[in-house]
């Protein structure tokens, strides 16, 4: 029986959380059917390991926490712009070291989000990496012959490009997307990046399967976890340096549909989205898709990082003391309209939007313009994909302010309540968003 990827994640996270709380840093290896062999290609791909870490070309500033108030933070701790690409105000809205997509920038677009308007979530800053010097460095007790970080199995970008390429149209969404509605609609703010609905995007990613690379690197049968680590500056929050952004994946997911992507929508990966190589972990929360990946630890014992123990857990009333698992990304819907958009009064308006869910494809969408819910028309070509476009025709009854609402239901039956359950860190908002427009 196959389970949904997000279900797998909840299982993995639940198990690891219990092990972590019990102080268990060891675990038995999982038995797998297939014996993974040290490919002969490995020798050819293992570089001399002359230089160790590839470095950011620009001096790396100390990271600052973009979301949590930090009394130690000074304005000088971020030197240049944390984001490399231009941030035209009609496409993107800056939010500290991050930028969210403006939903009106998707009006009239195709299925994927063009690279110029894809949201950016940076814990610190976009590093400028030299693709020639860059190496993927795999090490750990889950590999034959590369137990330590100092003697990794290395792959250059050219090595990866020579391996069989795959394409995947996948959605990346920040677990905190729509967090600002906890404050603006429910009067119960949560700390962290104040995303509207624009912390999400779908792109066509191209790269090599992580599983292919793990096998070439000499994966052992006893491997249980894989932890990719970003080459962006170390993340400092509340005066504590948490090290590089990293988060473990169970070996089952790592060998499944995870890509080491080097292209996004037919272009080399842009700097802000992980150049030269990032992970794309379909169906899992955005933090799993580590950008600017460098070291990858492959371990025979369970791995932990602050990104699966301290952050990205559900804390607060109704949740376990150690935090609940983030299961699937929640169901959300957005109109491809500006906030406070002006629409023509006295005629028909074609409202467009998109809905998505981490648990599975969208089954149906309803829209309310003030006089009850009615079904939206789904774009047939999108059925079964990571998000669903829809339309509805609306004739504003009179000039003036109106509130638009959209709600979707996915194939598992999960929908969108009027009020989202709160959690301390403001993850997984799933409430119906009240979108103001003015007919004039
Ligand atoms: N190295 C690194 N990887 C990272 C991050 C980061 O700050 N550093 N942010 C993560 C988070 S929280 C999200 S939501 C996604 C966002 O990907 P994007 O910036 O390409 O949209 O990247 C993830 N990968
Ligand atoms: Mo995120």
Beta-strand residue percentage:
25-35%
List ligands, each type once: the ligand Nc1nc2c(c(=O)[nH]1)N[C@H]1C(S)=C(S)[C@@H](COP(=O)(O)O)O[C@H]1N2, molybdenum atom
Secondary-structure element string: HHEEEEHEHEHEEEEHEEEEHEEEEEEEEE
What is the overall silhouette? globular
Low confidence ranges: 1-7, 25-79
Keywords:
binds molybdenum atom, binds ligand MTE, Immunoglobulin-like, 440 residues, disordered N terminus, alpha+beta, Sulfite Oxidase, Chain A, domain 2, 2 domains, five-stranded mixed β-sheet, 23 strands
Could you explain how this protein is built, in words?
There is one protein chain. The protein is of the alpha+beta class and 440 residues long. The chain folds into two domains: 305 residues, Oxidoreductase, molybdopterin-binding domain (Sulfite Oxidase, Chain A, domain 2, Alpha-Beta Complex), CATH 3.90.420; 108 residues, Immunoglobulin-like, CATH 2.60.40.650. 11% of the residues lie in helices and 26% in strands. The strands form six sheets. It has a five-stranded mixed β-sheet with strand order 4-3-14-7-10. Strand 11 and strand 12 form a beta hairpin. The radius of gyration is 22 Å and the shape is globular. The site of molybdenum atom has 5 residues, from loops.
């Amino acid at each position: 029986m196959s389970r949904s990827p997000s279900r797998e994640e909840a299982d993995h996270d639940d198990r690891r959380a219990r092990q972590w709380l019990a102080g268990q840093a060891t675990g038995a290896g999982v038995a797998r059917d297939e014996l993974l062999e040290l490919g002969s290609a490995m020798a050819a791909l293992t570089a001399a390991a002359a230089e160790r870490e590839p470095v950011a070309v620009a001096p790396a500033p100390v990271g600052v926490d973009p979301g949590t108030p930090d009394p130690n933070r000074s304005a000088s701790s971020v030197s240049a712009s944390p984001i490399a690409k231009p941030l035209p105000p009609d496409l993107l809205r800056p939010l500290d070291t991050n930028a969210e997509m403006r939903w009106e920038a998707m009006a009239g677009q195709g299925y994927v989000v063009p690279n110029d308007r894809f949201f950016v979530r940076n814990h610190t800053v976009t590093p400028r990496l030299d693709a020639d010097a860059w190496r993927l460095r795999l090490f750990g007790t889950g590999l034959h012959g590369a137990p330590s970080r100092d003697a990794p199995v290395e792959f250059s970008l050219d090595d990866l490009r020579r391996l069989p390429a795959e394409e995947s149209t996948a959605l990346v969404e920040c677990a905190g997307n729509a967090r600002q509605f906890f404050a603006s609609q429910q009067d119960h703010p949560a700390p962290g990046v104040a995303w509207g609905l624009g912390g999400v995007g779908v792109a066509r990613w191209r790269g090599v399967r992580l599983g292919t690379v793990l096998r070439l690197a000499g994966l052992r049968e006893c491997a249980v976890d894989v932890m990719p680590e970003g080459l962006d500056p170390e993340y400092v929050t509340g005066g504590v340096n948490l090290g590089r952004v990293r988060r473990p994946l169970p070996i089952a997911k790592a060998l499944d549909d995870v890509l080491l992507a080097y292209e996004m929508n037919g272009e080399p990966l842009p700097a802000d989205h992980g150049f030269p190589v990032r992970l794309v972990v379909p169906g899992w929360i955005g933090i799993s898709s580590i950008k600017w990946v460098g070291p990858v630890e492959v371990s025979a014992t369970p791995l932990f990082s602050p990104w699966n123990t301290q952050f990205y857990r559900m804390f607060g009333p109704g949740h376990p003391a150690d935090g609940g698992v983030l299961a699937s990304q929640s169901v959300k819907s957005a109109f491809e309209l500006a906030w406070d958009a002006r629409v023509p009064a006295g005629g028909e308006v074609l409202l467009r939007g998109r809905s998505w869910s981490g648990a599975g494809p969208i089954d149906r969408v309803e829209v309310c313009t003030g006089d009850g819910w009615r079904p939206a028309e789904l774009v047939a070509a999108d059925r079964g994909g990571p998000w669903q476009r829809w339309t509805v025709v609306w004739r504003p009854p009179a000039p003036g302010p109106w509130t638009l609402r959209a709600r979707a239901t996915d194939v598992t039956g999960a929908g969108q309540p009027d009020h989202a359950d709160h959690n301390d860190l403001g993850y997984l908002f799933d409430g119906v968003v009240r979108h103001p427009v003015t007919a004039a």
